[in-house]
């Protein structure tokens, strides 16, 4: 197996001298400019003439956009592995997935001992490196919720919290030459990174053979291990003319399986030649030879990962360029779940462009199992993941772009979160009413409704949408608005999940000065009185006031409690106090605070990693108006033992200004959205209690919070005239019912 079929990459190996600290930085920037893929630096922390390599890597990451970065190789005895794991993951997150981990056991022991490191024998160094890899991988493994206990004699952790995980599959590459180190590469590493100058003729082939045999014995495919090689101009393979370099590197790729060539030089002219002449020629020649030989190329998964594949999904047919995450992949834990539901999809596709969304959708239509769409991944209802099917995850389409300052027109990728949007436009004094949590995804909220903390003054999120970019079931891409395909534009505002995959939203932001944000915690021992008084105040308040109320049923250690999140959409504190003070009388106050803040201070960016849990059990309804009878029913529901949590969100004011027929969200007369969550997996108890107590007072529902699968819920979500119109749209735009997971509207009726 001389050619492992790895995608060829090329990089530089730069000396981190500090005489002029900008020199190694400029060489790194040049590496990117000439089209190379990787920048690496020596790591000798005991060398006073060198910059600290990790600091330099971080600085270079900020100066570049595309190249990957690694130590070559980092000195493990002077880099504590638990801290190193978090450092690599952090740099990977900050750089957008460009950090790799080159790692070595250490060689210059006199200098390391001088820095305070206990001396190890070569055998002890291998053992220490093996333990360090276990610690690093364990901390990167966020699929487990248990604290990490790993390592042994030289490096160990006992109860360390896991995370963060790198944003991409950061490789662990080992600098290795001796038999025990080569076996360690085979058993635990992602790459072998020797230097040609330290090797005798035939060592590369012998090393490959040793790694391949040990990998096979360990149950790994040898192709899982990338072969990298440091090369020096003027010696070894890089002698003679540029064409001779090309010949030598082609032979190293085809005959010795080298997939990454790293040029050790500080000469900018040599770097430029390597990037503009040598690398393209080698790629072209190797591609031609692989074509003739029929070499299988591309990433290779382990036997353990392959065993987790789901029957009925053609993993080898995933469209080129679309990132695919399978069960068994390191990143699977990051993308399998939503905020409320722990999913087990057979495949998660993560396109980064609209064209990739179209190709991913075409592919997904031919696979088994359900097809779920996910924007930001918040997913209260749990429908943006699944078990055994395909998930189309749009989180990489997360741009926020101001299109027109004068009209406050903003284009937002469907995979962005509203917290990121709020932060991006806050400096202009703008805001978009969008839920009550920064981790909510743009695509879901902007096609369902969008009940937000500015809603009574500014309406629903969908009321400000000007256009959608959407991929339809047939793969065609449409930009729809009030003037371009207005019927589809109507349907996407309220039933978007049924009609296509929205990839971007153009929306009008509102001018929003600083607001007053008040939080109050109440004793909810008498929830009926609390809900009735709070609701009466909110529904009759000036439009500047929007309030959400969350009630917990409590447990063995405490009774029911409630928290009100209230926004006065103005910085006029005197007016805010006048309206907020009566709210302190709705129930005994346990805690209160209020502050003047930008809207982005309430709806700020949050982590998008979700672990989920059992499928959520919830019911949703829209309350036309708060009455004593409705308050009493909701209080009884909270105390019934079937509801662990009750949430009420104000939906009055400006929401009522829009005609019910103007959007597919037709519920324009109700004052509150009400949601209840069960505290158990069996939904029969909550369904019975909700149907008896709350449902008689409701008129409609908000579909993002409803998990009752009974078909009559569709009639609650969409009134008859709206549903008839949506069915007609389905017959036009999705006649095969591809989008059938989010309150599915069967085109056949």
From TrEMBL:
Pfam families: Bac_luciferase (PF00296), FAD_binding_4 (PF01565). One of its GO terms (molecular function) is FAD binding. Keywords: FAD, Flavoprotein, Oxidoreductase. The keyword Oxidoreductase applies. InterPro entries: FAD-bd_PCMH, FAD-bd_PCMH-like_sf, FAD-bd_PCMH_sub1, FAD-bd_PCMH_sub2, FAD-linked_Oxidoreductase, Luciferase-like_dom, Luciferase-like_sf, Oxid_FAD_bind_N. PROSITE patterns: FAD_PCMH, OX2_COVAL_FAD. Residues 340-512 form the FAD-binding PCMH-type domain. Its cofactor is FAD. Belongs to the oxygen-dependent FAD-linked oxidoreductase family. PANTHER family: BINDING OXIDOREDUCTASE, PUTATIVE (AFU_ORTHOLOGUE AFUA_1G17690)-RELATED, FAD-BINDING PCMH-TYPE DOMAIN-CONTAINING PROTEIN. This is FAD-binding PCMH-type domain-containing protein. It comes from Cellulomonas algicola. The lineage of its organism: Bacteria, Bacillati, Actinomycetota, Actinomycetes, Micrococcales.
């Amino acid at each position: 197996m001389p050619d492992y079929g790895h995608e060829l990459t090329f990089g530089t190996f730069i000396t981190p001298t500090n005489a002029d600290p900008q020199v190694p930085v400029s060489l790194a920037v040049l590496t990117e400019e000439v089209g190379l893929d990787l920048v690496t630096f020596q790591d000798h922390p005991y060398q006073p003439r060198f910059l600290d390599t990790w600091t330099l890597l971080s600085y270079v990451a900020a100066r570049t956009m595309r190249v990957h970065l690694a130590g070559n190789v980092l000195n493990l005895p002077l880099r504590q592995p638990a801290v190193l794991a978090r450092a690599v993951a952090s740099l990977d997150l900050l750089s957008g997935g460009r950090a790799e981990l080159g790692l070595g056991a250490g060689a210059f022991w006199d200098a390391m001992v001088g820095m305070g490191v206990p001396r190890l024998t070569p055998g002890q160094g291998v053992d220490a490196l093996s333990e360090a890899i276990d610690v690093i991988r364990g901390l990167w493994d966020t699929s487990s919720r248990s604290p990490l206990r790993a390592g042994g004699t030289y490096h160990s952790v006992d109860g360390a919290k896991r995370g963060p995980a790198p944003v991409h599959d950061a490789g662990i590459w080992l600098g290795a030459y001796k038999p025990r180190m080569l076996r360690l590469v085979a058993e635990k590493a992602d790459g072998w990174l020797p230097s040609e100058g330290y090797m005798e003729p035939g060592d590369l082939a012998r090393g490959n053979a040793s790694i391949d045999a040990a990998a096979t014995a360990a149950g790994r495919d040898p192709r899982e291990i990338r072969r990298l090689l440091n090369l020096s101009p003027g010696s070894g393979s890089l002698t003679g003319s540029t064409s001779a370099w090309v010949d030598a590197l082609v032979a190293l790729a085809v005959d010795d399986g080298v997939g990454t060539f790293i040029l050790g030089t500080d000469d900018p002219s040599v770097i430029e030649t390597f990037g503009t002449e040598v690398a393209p020629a080698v790629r072209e020649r190797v591609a031609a030879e692989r074509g003739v030989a029929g070499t299988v190329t591309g990433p290779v998964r382990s036997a353990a990962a392959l065993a987790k594949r789901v029957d009925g999904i053609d993993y080898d047919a995933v469209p080129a360029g679309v990132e695919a995450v399978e069960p068994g992949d390191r990143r699977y834990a990051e993308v399998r779940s939503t905020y409320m539901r722990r999913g087990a999809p057979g495949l998660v596709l993560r396109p980064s462009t609209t064209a990739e969304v179209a190709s991913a959708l075409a592919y997904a239509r031919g696979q088994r199992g359900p097809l779920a769409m996910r924007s930001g991944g918040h997913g209260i209802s749990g429908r943006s993941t699944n078990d055994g099917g395909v998930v189309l995850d749009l989180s990489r389409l997360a741009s926020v772009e101001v299109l027109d300052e004068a009209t406050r027109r903003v284009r937002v990728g469907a995979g962005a979160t509203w917290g990121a949007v709020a932060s991006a436009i806050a400096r202009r004094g703008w805001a978009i009413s969008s839920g009550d949590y920064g981790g909510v995804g743009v695509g879901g909220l902007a096609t369902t409704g969008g009940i937000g903390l500015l809603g009574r003054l500014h309406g629903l999120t969908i009321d400000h949408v000007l256009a959608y970019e959407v991929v339809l079931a047939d793969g065609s891409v449409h930009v729809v608005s009030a003037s371009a395909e207005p019927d589809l534009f109507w349907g996407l505002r309220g039933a978007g999940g049924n009609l296509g995959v929205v990839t971007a939203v153009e929306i009008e932001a509102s001018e929003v000065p600083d607001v007053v944000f008040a939080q109050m915690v109440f004793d909810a021992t008498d929830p009926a009185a609390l809900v009735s008084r709070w609701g009466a105040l909110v529904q009759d308040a000036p439009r500047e006031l929007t309030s959400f109320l969350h009630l917990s049923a409590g447990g063995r250690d405490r009774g029911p409690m409630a928290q009100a999140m209230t926004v006065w959409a103005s910085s006029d504190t005197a007016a805010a106090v006048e309206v907020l003070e009566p709210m302190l009388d709705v129930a005994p106050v346990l805690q209160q605070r209020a502050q003047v803040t930008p809207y982005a201070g309430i709806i700020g960016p949050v982590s998008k990693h979700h672990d989920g849990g059992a499928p959520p059990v919830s019911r949703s309804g829209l309350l036309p108006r708060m009455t004593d009878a409705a308050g009493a029913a909701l209080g009884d529901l909270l105390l019934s033992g079937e509801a662990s949590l009750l949430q009420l969100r104000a939906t009055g004011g400006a929401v009522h200004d829009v005609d019910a027929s103007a959007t597919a969200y037709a519920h324009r007369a109700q004052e509150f959205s009400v949601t209840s969550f069960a505290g158990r997996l069996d939904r029969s108890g909550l369904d019975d209690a909700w149907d008896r107590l709350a449902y008689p007072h409701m008129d409609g529902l908000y579909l993002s919070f409803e998990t009752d699968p009974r078909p009559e819920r569709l009639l609650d979500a969409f009134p008859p005239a709206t549903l008839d119109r949506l069915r007609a749209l389905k017959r036009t735009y999705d006649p095969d019912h591809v989008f059938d997971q989010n309150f599915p509207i069967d085109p056949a009726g």
